[in-house]
Design brief:
186 residues; alpha+beta; eight-stranded mixed β-sheet; 5 helices; 29% helix
Length: 186
């Protein structure tokens, strides 16, 4: 049984980035990410149609934090408070000490090392605060940019699943990357 609580919410920080809780004030940027077909082409989830759906998504994300089911952070670049992306721990298997991480960035924030740096922060949080033994990331095999980000953070390709997820009338392949806490000590 999980006794871990994400509350009070813990902000994370690096020299360049500040990771904070998402709020409805982030709806425009969340919609710019989740409503963009180019950014969603590797994500088997519905594309948002409007800002109201972005507000609903943010509210769901924050409910999951309160319920201890998942945690997400808004990624901001200091000193700005503007969301340029978000990331977090999902599909947490407390009984197996394993969680899945996921991340998305605005187009203009990509290719600048932001994901790599933000992932480093939530990896530390996952291992040190959540006491996870392993982390995973599930990506589309065609998303080579995401694979490179994971590899920069020490994740290794663990599995390739063929047509393992059905969404929007088609079957999707998945690659699973993983990182063990003991990998960080090597």
């Amino acid at each position: 049984m999980n006794t871990f609580s994400f509350l009070p919410f813990q902000n994370l920080e690096s020299e360049r980035l500040f990771l904070r809780q998402m709020s409805v004030e982030d709806a425009e940027e969340v919609f710019a990410i989740r409503g963009n077909p180019d950014l969603m082409k590797f994500i088997p989830r519905p594309i948002l149609s409007n800002k109201e759906e972005a507000v609903a998504l943010i509210n769901t994300i924050n409910e999951k934090i309160t319920e201890g089911e998942a945690i997400n952070w808004a990624i901001t670049i200091k000193p700005s408070n503007k969301l340029v992306g978000y990331l977090g721990h999902y599909r947490i298997q407390w009984e197996n000490y394993r969680s899945e991480i996921g991340y998305m960035l605005l187009t203009e924030a990509q290719g600048k090392g932001i994901s790599t740096e933000a992932i480093e922060l939530i990896v530390e949080y996952g291992f040190e605060k959540m006491k996870m033994h392993s982390l995973e990331a599930v990506i589309d095999p065609e998303n080579r940019a995401s694979a490179r980000v994971l590899e920069k953070n020490g994740f290794v390709k663990e599995a390739n699943f063929r047509e393992n997820e059905y969404f929007d009338g088609k079957f999707w392949d998945s690659e699973v990357y993983s990182l063990l806490k003991t990998d960080l000590k090597k």
